[in-house]
From TrEMBL:
It is found in: Cytoplasm. This is Ribosomal RNA large subunit methyltransferase H. It catalyses: pseudouridine(1915) in 23S rRNA + S-adenosyl-L-methionine = N(3)-methylpseudouridine(1915) in 23S rRNA + S-adenosyl-L-homocysteine + H(+). Keywords: Cytoplasm, Methyltransferase, rRNA processing, S-adenosyl-L-methionine, Transferase. HAMAP family: 23SrRNA_methyltr_H. Signal peptide: none annotated. Homodimer. Specifically methylates the pseudouridine at position 1915 (m3Psi1915) in 23S rRNA. Belongs to the RNA methyltransferase RlmH family. One of its GO terms (molecular function) is rRNA (pseudouridine-N3-)-methyltransferase activity. InterPro entries: Alpha/beta_knot_MTases, RlmH-like, tRNA_m1G_MTases_N.
Length: 159
């Protein structure tokens, strides 16, 4: 299985990079995982609704340019479907069973994701009704995908 995590913005925090590197190393036994960073759009502090939509549109174009036609796209959205770790594992297992060997997880920028990216999405996933920094979401997502592979293989993992 090939997993892409397409994320807006550059990761700067050393502690997050270390955690991400650890999970990338652990996951290498289960899947080929790549993290694709797309530049965030520079935006003024107080934007109009039209300016916000334009920022999301530009970031969305960058995201879409990294998604292949045969990828199953999962967008991370506050309004998406809440799943337990076991349900996410089941979803990933189901995709593999039905020949969807490429999964692209999308983490938008600070304003969220564009309508175009939402239209390309096959599944909207929510981790919580809370808002998390998009840089931190990379680490949380990797941990949960790693946990999914462990669950699907019947391997022990702390609960």
């Amino acid at each position: 299985m090939r997993i892409s995590i397409v994320s807006v913005g550059k990761l700067k925090e050393k502690y997050l990079k270390q955690g991400i590197d650890e999970y990338l190393k652990r996951m290498s036994a289960y899947a080929k995982v790549e993290i694709i960073e797309v530049p965030d759009e520079k935006a003024p502090e107080n934007m109009s609704e039209a300016e916000m939509q334009e920022v999301k549109r530009k970031e969305g174009e960058r995201i879409l340019s990294h998604i292949s036609q045969d990828s199953y796209v999962i967008t991370l959205e506050i309004g998406g479907k809440l799943l337990s770790s076991e349900q996410l594992a089941e979803k990933i297992d189901e995709l593999a069973t039905y020949g969807k060997s490429k999964i692209a997880f999308i983490i938008g920028g600070s304003l969220g994701i564009s309508n175009e990216v939402q239209k390309r999405s096959d599944f909207a996933l929510s981790f919580s009704k809370m808002t998390f920094p998009h840089q931190l979401m990379r680490l949380i997502l990797l941990e949960q995908v790693y946990r999914s592979f462990r669950i699907n293989r019947g391997e022990p993992y702390h609960k």
